[in-house]
Amino acid sequence: MEQELIQTIVDFFKNNERQGPGCEEATLKALGLVSESHYFEHILDIGCGTGAQTMTLARKTNAQIFAVDLLAEFLDVLTERATRWGLQDRIAVHKTSMDDLPFPRNFFDMIWSEGAIYHIGFERGLKQWGTLLKRRGYLVASEISWTSNERPQYLTDYWMASYPEIDLISNKMKLIEDCGYIPVGCFTLPNAGWDNYYHPIIKQVALSIAQPINDSTKKSFMETIIDELIIYQRYREFYNYVFYVMQKK
Ligand code: SAM
């Protein structure tokens, strides 16, 4: 991705609570499906962004959290947040890519990834990240999924162009088993998780209409965001983020 677009993305998202759909209620619900998380020593949070879920994981477990993201400015915000909460000794940030993680094999009790595994692809993420998990370690990932097997062709085309790995929940569960995990549970994100993400964005879009953008990168980024918002408003009953909780065999 070119630098100008990356900077546009950083500037747009870094002051928002979250960089993807999600909410604390869902993070806690997923954590509730994980057994004995209070005994965990090491948790890896991949694609952590500015760390909304990282703070929850740090507060609700006793583990050392390794928070990974590609973008330093997001990690800076996360570090400020952790310091404000007095959690700086429990969270270490790593600016590194999710497809080349510099951690030992069989090291983590749990890997967590909210709204980010699509960057590497669900199947590839499950396979590669699994090597970092201890035996019986957990992987929890939220992933965009079809919630209906009948839907408008326009919507199918839109998502296939953006993320061809989007699939029905039943097919994702089968894939989880094929990738060497025991499926523990799954649930769809409540509407509050989308509201958390989209409410600040709607304000930003409104501001951009009031102050027209001349820069072509920013303009095309804003058009993409507006398309995404329209799709969500029109077709939200056909897809959702789904939390998948699984355990390494
Ligand atoms: N988990 C956060 C949340 O729910 O608010 C952020 C989700 S955001 C949709 C996806 C995150 O993945 C961004 O912070 C982005 O910088 C990060 N990301 C994208 N590509 C990455 C990569 N190759 N390696 C690590 N992080 C990456």
TrEMBL record:
CDD domains: AdoMet_MTases. It holds the Pfam family Methyltransf_25. GO terms for molecular function: methyltransferase activity. One of its GO terms (biological process) is methylation. InterPro entries: CFA/CMAS, Methyltransf_25, SAM-dependent_MTases_sf. It is an enzyme of class 2 (transferase). Keywords: Methyltransferase, Transferase. The keyword Methyltransferase applies. The keyword Transferase applies. Residues 43-137 form the Methyltransferase domain. This is SAM-dependent methyltransferase. It comes from Olivibacter oleidegradans.
